[in-house]
Specification:
Strand 26 (464-469) and strand 27 form a beta hairpin. The protein is of the alpha+beta class. It has helices spanning 66-70, 84-93, 147-156, 185-198, 220-223, 228-238, 303-324, 331-335, 380-387, 393-398, 427-431, 434-449; strands at 2-7, 10-14, 19-22, 35-37, 40-43, 53-55, 77-81, 97-101, 106-109, 112-118, 126-132, 135-139, 162-165, 202-205, 210-212, 254-258, 261-265, 272-276, 339-345, 350-356, 365-366, 374-379, 402-406, 410-412, 415-417, 464-469, 472-478, 485-487.
Length: 488
């Protein structure tokens, strides 16, 4: 088996009789223009070999990149989680053979066996086991692993030969939501504990190979608390049996596995080249962060048009939306007398409003209220992009263009009472739900890229099809001139 690292979570896997492309992101920047793969790479996508199977682990945009998918052959078999949005987008791009998988579903392609592994983060998403005569590889991708999953896999496989490990305890939106940006000891301890329980023969830190760019680059010093070198050193301490079978892969590297032996072939992938080692740009240093929120207006929206649209939304549409849902979406806001302070940062000014949920009717009042207990700060261009349905909440939150914090409590003679904060949504997020925006943005990306022909990898006529036998997908050959089919 050979693993080619394309970059971040994108890999190309060669088993004994199957070629598999997983989570392809072939261009930078990606994730609505926020991320570059790190270390910096170049993908010669027209040189990607023919492959049998395309696997998408989940819908996050650093794993599900519409532009990349638009350039790939549409006759290939595609495996996805049970996610209608993924399936619809792939169908609109022209993919013909899409198969949805649940936790612990199996796939058989000749002598190659695949198994989906459960994630406790129900995006939905899954990890993947690749197995052939050369060994067993578990790609954890972004999945959150439970002890039950580890116990199940250990009962199923005598040994995990190669673990593409989930390793980086990211603090992705902690700063933006007023959460701790201290080193995440407990979360990282769980990562290392899981490795000592899995006890693989070899480990490569996988996924989480990207950096923030442009006006969001200040986040690099607070999102990635662990370096690959630190992780590898810690693994050797908690699991010394690993010895030298630790491989920090860069884009363009290949890791081969055969008969319990591993080879790290640096820079030998023919369709990916590492351009430069820029990992220093993501060095964790939370004491250096003091970035005031500013609006760089990267899409050059007209400022007066933004002000007019946002003023109408905040002063007219949002209060009407809240008032109509006081007894449903906002029942906890009213119960706890939430006073929401909203500040929108324009390129040339700032505007403030507040909403008092103890009032009737609820109105947008101009200015600052010293009794506010729920705070939202947001750039005008990111909110305007959401109003126009051309940007999503990932762009606003991951990019640092949205920040929020709460100090919700009720003082009583018996002490402080606190609500369940998960039930008290930001009114803007309630008005423009995450999933609805994501669907709109993906549909726009599909429309933009689905007709692309130039430099696309050629599709060949499919000579196989996948058949479900119980809990297993099996690829079978079509017997030309007959209705009979035979297994690979």
């Amino acid at each position: 088996m050979k693993i080619h690292l394309i970059g971040h979570a994108s890999i190309f896997v060669e088993t004994q009789d199957c070629r598999i492309l997983m989570d392809p992101v072939l261009w930078d920047p990606h994730q609505e223009g926020l991320f570059d793969v790190c270390p910096k790479r170049e993908v010669l996508y027209e040189q990607i070999p023919e492959f049998d199977l395309l696997i998408i682990s989940h819908q996050h945009l650093d794993h599900f990149d519409i532009r990349s998918l638009a350039h790939l052959p549409k006759t290939v078999d595609v495996l996805i989680p049970h996610d209608k949005l993924l399936e619809t987008c792939l169908q609109q791009l022209g993919y013909e053979n899409i198969y949805t998988l649940r936790d612990f579903n199996e796939v058989k392609i000749g002598s190659t066996r695949l198994l989906t592994t459960r994630s406790e983060n129900r995006v939905p998403e899954y990890g993947i086991i690749f197995a052939d005569e050369s060994g067993v590889c578990w790609n954890q991708v972004d999945t959150i692993i439970s002890l039950n999953t580890i116990h199940f896999l250990k009962s199923r496989y005598e040994k995990i030969d190669l673990l593409l490990a989930s390793w980086q305890p990211m603090l992705e939106v902690h700063y933006q939501n007023n959460q701790s940006i201290s080193f995440p000891y407990e979360k990282y301890s769980t990562v290392l504990e899981n490795i000592s329980l899995v006890r693989p023969k070899a480990i490569a830190p996988a996924s989480n190979g990207f950096k923030y760019i442009n006006d969001s680059s200040w986040l690099n010093s607070i999102v990635f608390p662990v370096t690959r070198e630190q992780f590898c050193n810690d693994v050797k301490t908690v699991f010394p049996e690993i010895e030298e079978n630790l491989f920090a892969l860069d884009p363009g590297d290949i890791l081969s596995m055969k008969d319990g032996e591993f080879k790290h072939l640096k820079g030998q992938c023919k369709f990916v080249k590492k351009v430069t080692d820029d990992k220093e740009s993501i060095e964790f240093s939370p004491v250096k962060v003091g970035s005031d929120i500013i609006d760089p207006n990267p899409d050059n929206y007209d400022i007066e048009e933004m002000k007019e649209a946002i003023n109408e939304e905040v002063c007219v549409n949002l209060p009407k939306f809240i008032e109509e849902r006081k007894n449903s979406l906002f029942i906890e806001h009213c119960r706890w007398n939430i006073l929401h302070q909203l500040e929108i940062v324009f390129p040339d000014s700032r505007s403030r409003w507040y909403f008092d949920f103890s009032e009737y009717p609820i109105k947008a009042r101009t200015g600052r209220n010293p009794l506010a207990n729920f705070f939202t700060y947001m750039t005008a261009s990111s909110l305007y992009g959401i109003l126009k349905r051309v940007k999503g909440w990932d762009y606003a939150t991951l990019g640092g263009y949205y920040r929020s914090f709460k100090k919700l409590y009720r003082a009583t003679s018996h002490g402080i009472l606190k609500p369940d904060e998960s039930k008290i949504l930001d009114p803007l997020i309630a008005r423009f739900p995450y999933k609805e925006l994501l669907e709109i943005i993906l549909q726009q990306e599909v429309e933009k890229w689905k007709e692309t022909k130039e430099n696309s990898l050629k599709s060949s006529e499919s000579t196989t099809r996948m058949v479900k036998l119980g809990n297993m997908l099996v690829r079978i050959r079509k017997d030309v001139g007959s209705t009979q089919v035979t297994q690979d």
